[in-house]
Design goal:
Structural class: alpha+beta
Strand content: 35-45%
Protein name: Lipoprotein
Strand order of the largest sheet: 1-2-3-4-5-6-7-8
Shape: globular
InterPro entries: Integrin_alpha_N (IPR028994)
Organism: Desulfosporosinus acididurans
Radius of gyration: 38 Å
Number of domains: 2
Keywords: Signal
CATH architecture of the largest domain: Beta Barrel
Number of helices: 3
Helix content: 10-25%
Length: 310
Amino acid sequence: MAIKINSKNKKILLVLITLSLLLTGCGNAEKVSTATVSDASAKSSAAKKSSPTTVTNDSVDYNQYVKKVWKLKNNSDMSFVISKIENSKAIGKLSVLNYTTADKNLQSFEADFEGEINKDTAVCQYNDSKGNKGSLKLVFKSNQEIEGTITIADKAKATVQPSLGTFYFAPETIKDIKGFSPIEKQSFMVNLNSWGNIKFVSGKLTGGSHVPVEFYLTDKDGDILYDFAATLPYRVDVKAVSFEDVNKDGLKDIIIIVNDEDDSSNCLATVYFQKADGSFANDMKLDQEINESKNNKDVKTVRTFLASKF
C-alpha cells in the first residue's frame, strides 16, 4: 500500500532531515575538536618531559686546598695549612717563621684557626696559647691560588707577627726549596691512612755548609702536604725508611735510620708516630732509648726493640 505525502508533510520531513544532518555534523566536529586539543596537550606534555633541565652547581671541590702548605708568594716566612674542611667549617694552622735578624729571641708564630665557609670564602678566627688573636679570611681563587686577608686583634710579645693586609698564597712545592736535593732511593709512594696515596720524600739541603736532611709528604704534582721538620744531625745519609704501625693504633708510623757520612757504622734512628689528625710526632725519650741501647743498625732491630714497648 503506497503512502501519500502531501506538500505540507514534505516540508516537515525536509526540516527534520536537515536538523538531523546538522546535529550529526556538530557531533563529529566536537569529537575532532576534542581529539585535537587532547593531542596538543599530550604533545605539550611530552615536550616538557623531553626538554633538558639545567642544574646549577655552585659547590666547590675543597679537596684541592686541604693538607697543603700554602706559602705567601715571594715570601717564605708566612704560610698556612688547611687540615680539614667539613660541615661548612675550615680548620687549620697559620705559621710565621722567625727569619728576622732584628730580634732572634722572638719565637716563631703558630696559631690554630677555624671558621665558617660559604662557597669560595672562609671567614676564620685564629688564636694561640701565647695570646695572639686575629682573623683570617680566605678566598679560594683556583687550585694554585688563595687570597688571604689578615687582621690582628691581640699581639703576644714573645712571638713574631703575621703581616697585616691582603696577600696571595700558592702551594709550596719541592722545587721551591732552594738547595733541596731529593734522595730518590729513599723516597717512596706510600698509603698513609687518611693521607691516601702520597709520596714520602727524603732529601738534603745542599746550599749551605751544614747539609741537613729533610723529609716531606707531597702529592703527585710535588706540592708539599707535610713538613716533618726533622732535627737530625747534619752531614748524615739516609740509610733506611720503613712504614709500619709501630704502636698498634691502626695508623702507619715511620721509622727512619741515618748514618754518619764519614762513618756508616755510626747510626741514629728516629720514629715518627702518626696521630689521629694525620700529623706526626717523635717521642724523644723513646728515640734516646733506641740509640743508647744501639738497637738502631737496621729496621728489623728497631722493630724488635719497639715490639717490647707496645
